[in-house]
Specification:
single chain; alpha/beta; Rossmann fold; 6-stranded parallel β-sheet; two-stranded antiparallel ribbon; 6 helices; 22% strand; Isochorismatase-like_dom; hydrolase activity; hydrolase; Nicotinamidase-related cysteine hydrolase
């Protein structure tokens, strides 16, 4: 790597993190999410802009390690990153086994090597891996921005009650808003990357 490239990367202290944009979350997958197609279309806009601007991109891919897992099973098509957001040469893929993308992975080391301070986070699920990853990143000292309409989740059950995906998503975005992250839309974010 040339000195000019290293200096250029050091100046760009932002990284786009795409979490679990994998086939099992799409229609026909083992764990279909509400609004996943729309969220990934927005994530693709962010990804295209990051590529144009030279902003580093890291793809997070969850591979199930838990016995009896029904989605993201190793070696299945469902565990693969969806073609809409698939990585290209030069983009890192971090494989994780837990909701927190930092736990047991090389993510922190990759970010430190690139001198990243600001993270733009999107993907799935809002109430699980987006939440866990954002809170962990905040605790590690990163400035986090979550792109709300580039995230998706699903209906949840609690004490015999169905909590609709839109309410789950809104609750988790509201909870992350202070102090963990700035919550924005794709339209607000796409020209800032």
């Amino acid at each position: 790597m040339s000195q000019a490239t290293m200096e250029s990367e050091a100046e760009n202290a932002t990284c786009l993190i795409l979490v679990d944009l994998q086939n099992d979350y799409f229609p026909g997958g083992s764990m279909e999410l509400v609004g996943m197609v729309e969220a990934t279309a927005n994530a693709k806009l962010l990804l295209e802009q990051a590529r144009k601007s030279g902003t580093p991109v890291i793809h997070i891919q969850h591979i199930a390690a838990r016995p009896g897992a029904t989605f993201f099973v190793p070696g299945t098509d469902g565990a693969e990153i969806n073609p809409v957001a698939e990585p290209v040469a030069g983009e890192s893929i971090v494989v994780k086994n837990f909701p927190n993308s930092f736990r047991g992975t090389s993510l922190l080391e990759l970010l430190a090597a690139r001198q990243v301070k600001d993270l733009v986070i999107c993907g799935a699920m809002s109430h699980m891996c987006i939440d866990a990853t954002t809170r962990a990143a905040f605790d590690l000292g990163f400035n986090c921005t979550v792109v709300a309409d580039a995230c998706a989740t699903r209906d949840l059950q609690f004490q015999g009650r169905t909590v609709k995906a839109a309410d789950v998503h809104a609750s988790f975005m509201a909870a992350l808003a202070i102090p963990y992250a700035k919550i924005v839309t794709t339209k607000e974010m796409v020209h800032q990357i």
